[in-house]
Amino acid sequence: MPRVLLCGKSLFVACVRAILETAPQLDLRLVGPQPERIRKIITRWKPDVLILETGLLEGVMSLALLQDFPQMKLIGLDIEDHRLVVLTGSTSCEPTPEQLLEIIER
C-alpha cells in the first residue's frame, strides 16, 4: 500500500485530497504547510510519495528532499499554472489529475 503525504491547505490541495481519498489502496496522511513538520513526518513515516504546493519547495523544503529521500516521489502542485509536476531523483513529468493515482501506485 503506497504511503502518500499530502501537504498544504489550498483549494487545489483539497481537490487532490478528494481524488486520493477515493482510492482505498492508498495510505494517505495530511499535514499543514509547515516545512519543519513536513520534514519530521517524512523522516519518521517514510512516505513513498510527497505531494505539496510548489511554493513550499523554496527555502527549507528545497529539492534537496530528493537527495535526502531518493526513494520518494515528489509531486508539486503548481497553483498558479493549475498543473502537477512529478519529480524523482532522475525524471520529471506533468500528469493530469487522473494520471496521479497511476503514478502513485507505480
| Poorly predicted runs | none
pLDDT averaged over residues? 82
Count of runs of 4 or more consecutive helical residues: 4
SSE ordering: EHEHEHEEEH
Shape: globular
Spatial arrangement of strands, main beta sheet: 2-1-3-4-5-6
List how many beta strands DSSP finds. 6
Helicity level, as a percent range? Answer: 25-40%
How much of the sequence is in beta strands?
25-35%
* End-to-end gap: 11 Å
The largest sheet, given as strand count, sense and whether it forms a barrel, is: 6 strands, mixed
| CATH T-level fold name | Rossmann fold
Number of domains: 1
Gyration radius from CA atoms, angstroms: 12 Å
**CATH architecture grouping:** 3-Layer(aba) Sandwich
Helix/strand class? alpha/beta
Note down, in words, how this protein is organized.
With 106 residues, the protein is α/β, with parallel strands linked by helices. It has a single domain, classed as Rossmann fold (3-Layer(aba) Sandwich). Helix content is 33%, strand content 26%. The chain is built from 4 helices and 6 strands, in the order βαβαβαβββα. It has helices spanning 11-20, 35-45, 64-68, 97-105; strands spanning 3-7, 27-31, 49-53, 73-78, 83-87, 92-93. It has a 6-stranded mixed sheet, sandwiched between helices. The longest helix has 11 residues, at 35-45. The chain is globular. The model has no long low-confidence stretch (mean pLDDT 82).
Ordered list of secondary-structure elements with their pairings:
Layout: E1 3-7, H1 11-20, E2 27-31, H2 35-45, E3 49-53, H3 64-68, E4 73-78, E5 83-87, E6 92-93, H4 97-105
